[in-house]
Every structure is written in C-alpha cells, then in structure tokens.
Amino acid sequence: MKVGILTSGGDAPGMNACIRAVVRGCLSKGMDVFGIYQGYHGMIKDDIQQLNIASVADIIHRGGTILRTARSDSFRTEEGRWKAYENLKSHGIEALVVIGGDGTLSGGREFSKQTGMKVYGLPGTIDNDLGYTDTTIGFDTAVNTAVAAVGNIRDTSSSMGRTTVIEVMGRHCGDIALYAGLAGGAEDILIPEQAYDIDKICDEVKAGVARGKLHSIIIKAEGVALSTQALAEFLELKTGCETKTVLLGYIQRGGSPTARDRVLASRMGIKAAELVEQGAESAAIGIHGDEIIAVPLEEALQMKKKSHTDFIEICNALL
Ligand code: F6P
C-alpha cells in the first residue's frame, strides 16, 4: 500500500511532529509513504518523493513543515484535482493523508468525492476553528507564544502607564484571543463571534486607572471588523490614557511546538496510520475529551465550532 502525505494552507507548530507520526506509523505497518511538497499545489505539479524513516528524523521539535505548504487555486477546480489524481496514480498512491485547516480538509473532501480516493484529514492550524475537534495541532503553541508576548508587553505598559491593544491571529475564530486574553489577565477580549461594547471597554480602562492600575491590556482578534489602530485611537480619546498597538502577526505561527502539541500530533498521526491500514472511509481525525476520534470527513466539516464566549465574562469578573 502506498500513501501520500501533505501539509497545506497556513503552517502550524506541530505539523512536523504529525508528519513524523504518520510516516513512522505507516512504515511500521509495512506501507510505503510519499511526501507531497507544497500541499495541493505540489500534488498538481507532481512534486512527490518517497520518504523513509530517516526523512522524518530530528523534526519533532521543529516549527513549520518540512513538506512545505502553499495555497492552491487550481485545486479548487475539477480539472486541477484530476491532474493531481493522475500524478498520485502514476506513483501508485492509493490513499492520502492531509494536514491543515478548514480549507485543507474541504479540499480533501472534494478530492475524495470526485476521485473516490480515501482521504484522512488531520487538523493542523493555529486558529482552532474546526467544529468536530476540541483542539487543533498548533493552537496550544500559538496561545503560549501570544501569552509570553502579552507578559512582555505588560511589563513595559506598566512601567509607562499605558493601555495596549494587542492584535492576535484569527480571521473567523477568536480562540487565540480568548485563551491568550484570559491567561494574560487582559481587561477585555474582542472576537469576531461576539459583538463588543466599546463604551464598556473605555469604562473598564478608566476604572482601572481610578484604582491605581498601571496598565490596561486589551486583546483583539484580527477578524474583528474594527481596526486595531482605530480602537486604540478611540480608547485614548475617551480615557485620556496613552494607548499603543501591537500586532503579533506571524510570530504566532512559528516556533518549537509545546509538549501538548507534540503529544496531540503524535497521537493523531498514529490514528491516521491505523485508518489507512484498515482502509477506513475518508475521515477527519480529532480529539474529544482525551479520546482521539475519527469522524466521517463530510460530517466533520459540517459541525459548527462552539466559541468560549464565557471567557470574556470570566476576564471581566477578574478585573
Ligand atoms: O493559519 C491561520 C492564519 O494564521 C489566520 O489566523 C490568518 O488570518 C491567516 O492564517 C493568514 O495566513 P496567510 O497570510 O499566510 O495567508
């Protein structure tokens, strides 16, 4: 049995640990594994090479993805997917393991529906925006990176007596903001999933200043319609407190994965190898509680993500 593996979309810390687990899991079951470079783009371009046990040595701790990644418009077309299928067939590849976010798993679903090839999706994205799994590979690392940055910013904000609005990643999902905000002791958290009250935020900052608080931290997800700069200018105007902005950006996507992400990636990768060996139907692999689960791919992608909006209330209650 020959299996293809790729990473696609935005990279996430822990993807390498996951690649390692899938490759070694499949090899130990007697399968041959082929690395597809630069995601679906590489599948169409036939950028495919056989991997062995040494190909994935010394990567468990490394951020990014050794298979590299890309976004592919051609793969959104039937024509592009047939081309990719022909390339897989020319290598004798009969099953595909894809690691990535919503776009990657949706691409895998379309590919599976069109060609009949079995596709197993692993959730690799810092955004934690997939409804069928409690958490995604890379999320824990991204949150810890953001929390460390919030700590540093807090030091200087305190010393200077400032308010700082920190923008974290998350186009449609506010999970990084919610976890980093709560863990970082923020005054308030703004996420795309919930309306915010800007006057309430101003009142929180003013109340903090009135009781002698030296700084205020507001965490905002990038997907919130109001720009970070506009929010900071408004806060400064209404509270009279000097207000700065920090955009954490891609720093959240890189770095060595946390132990939690490495463990999650390894467990999920091994599960993928088991499904391939069993010839199971196309599925998305996730975690529910402490159990690694496999959900039919179509069903998994229809499950709605629940947002921990209660974290905002907890944050406010702890002021
Ligand atoms: O990986 C997810 C994510 O980090 C989003 O939060 C962000 O909006 C997006 O990727 C940006 O990715 P890129 O600029 O690489 O397309």
List the topology elements.
Elements: E1 2-7, H1 15-28, E2 32-36, H2 39-45, E3 48-51, H3 78-90, E4 95-100, H4 102-115, E5 118-123, H5 139-160, E6 163-168, H6 175-183, E7 188-190, H7 198-210, E8 216-221, H8 228-239, E9 243-247, H9 259-278, E10 283-288, E11 291-296, H10 297-302, H11 310-317
Parallel strand pairs: 1-2, 1-4, 4-5, 5-10, 6-8, 6-9, 7-8
Antiparallel strand pairs: 2-3, 10-11
Bound molecules: 6-O-phosphono-beta-D-fructofuranose (F6P).
6-O-phosphono-beta-D-fructofuranose binds at residues 10, 125-127, 169-171, 222, 253.
Number of helices: 11
Judging by the overall fold, what is the CATH architecture of the largest domain? 3-Layer(aba) Sandwich
Low-pLDDT runs of 5+ residues are: none
Form type: elongated
Rounded mean pLDDT is 97
Structurally, how many domains make up the residues? Answer: 2
What is the rounded distance between the termini?
Answer: 57 Å
Following the backbone from N to C, one meets helices and strands in this order, namely: EHEHEHEHEHEHEHEHEHEEHH
CATH class of the largest domain: Alpha Beta
Q: At the third CATH level, what is the topology name of the largest domain?
A: Rossmann fold
Described by strand count, sense and barrel closure, the largest sheet is: 7 strands, mixed
Major β-sheet strand ordering: 3-2-1-4-5-10-11
Helical content (DSSP H or I, runs of 4+):
40-55%
**How many strand segments?**
11
Radius of gyration: 22 Å
Bound molecules: 6-O-phosphono-beta-D-fructofuranose
Strand content: 15-25%
Structural class: alpha/beta
